[in-house]
Amino acid sequence: MDFGRIVTAMVTPFHADGSIDWETTGRLMDYLIEEQQTDSIVVSGTTGESPTLTDDEKIALFKFAVKHAAGRSKIIAGSGSNETAHSIHLTKVAEQCGVDGALIVVPYYNKPTQEGIYQHFKVIAEATNLPIMAYNVPGRTIVSMSAETTLRIAQIPNIVATKECASLEQVTMIATDAPADFRVYSGDDSSALPAVAVGAHGIVSVASHIIGKEIREMITCYLDGQVQQAQKLHAKSLPIFRGLFDLPNPVLVKAALKEKGLPVGGVRLPLVDATESEVAALRKILN
């Protein structure tokens, strides 16, 4: 399974009362696929505020995304959690919904050992036929999956990719030693170009909500040997890459979408919306 070069970790649009705005979800998907040229969409990931979504809402998102994409983009279900049994349950349901893959995060809060992390991924993979993308994000999970453990799970047939938010050194180690068909994705927009330079396949992006076409052009230029042009595009995009994370994600990308004429509502507590001064600072970066 190749999820493409550009994977968007999609926000979840909400009405003012906090319920999911399905009409806007459809418009957002169309915009990401048609205008921002995303290859795959992650629904109910961290950017989609998965910690505050109920299982029923997640399942409804899986079903809606599959139907609405209609083959135009692959759909990856954020079905992992810090409970292995629950991750298995939600991944099985996601498979029944027709998604193209599952994003499984390293267990957060529990602080498992590397062997515990390996077993978590192993038993989830054994319970589904879906292609799995692992998600290592130590800034949120506290424990980081080591390069060695990632290379172990890469031997499991249906674990086909990893979204890596640890160091560039770790990206290099995994990309160098993993099986040829195992894909490494950067999970950090600012590191997209450096990661591709050391062997990553692409990016699981937040900024692709706003500059997906530019990110694609940057990666394409690098792969075509136009390294200086890729560097220029990276430098031009860097303020947006950084600026979108001045507040906890997805607060500012939701604000940015509103600025771009596609309002997707606010965020659910315990996150809070950006203030007027914070939006003003974001506006300067976008313009």
UniProtKB/TrEMBL annotation:
Source organism, top-level taxon: Bacteria
Catalytic activity: L-aspartate 4-semialdehyde + pyruvate = (2S,4S)-4-hydroxy-2,3,4,5-tetrahydrodipicolinate + H2O + H(+)
Class of this enzyme: lyase
Keywords: Amino-acid biosynthesis, Cytoplasm, Diaminopimelate biosynthesis, Lyase, Lysine biosynthesis, Schiff base
Major place of residence: cytoplasm
Annotated GO biological process: diaminopimelate biosynthetic process; lysine biosynthetic process via diaminopimelate
One Pfam family per UniProt: DHDPS
InterPro entries assigned to the protein according to its UniProt record, in alphabetical order: Aldolase_TIM (IPR013785), DapA (IPR005263), DapA-like (IPR002220), Schiff_base-form_aldolases_CS (IPR020624)
SUPFAM superfamilies xref list: Aldolase (SSF51569)
Annotated binding of pyruvate, by residue: T47, V204
Residues of the active site: Y135 (proton donor/acceptor), K163 (schiff-base intermediate with substrate)
Pathway note: Amino-acid biosynthesis; L-lysine biosynthesis via DAP pathway; (S)-tetrahydrodipicolinate from L-aspartate: step 3/4
Assigned EC number: 4.3.3.7
HAMAP family documented for this protein: DapA
NCBIfam families membership: dapA
Role of this protein: Catalyzes the condensation of (S)-aspartate-beta-semialdehyde [(S)-ASA] and pyruvate to 4-hydroxy-tetrahydrodipicolinate (HTPA).
Name the record gives this protein: 4-hydroxy-tetrahydrodipicolinate synthase
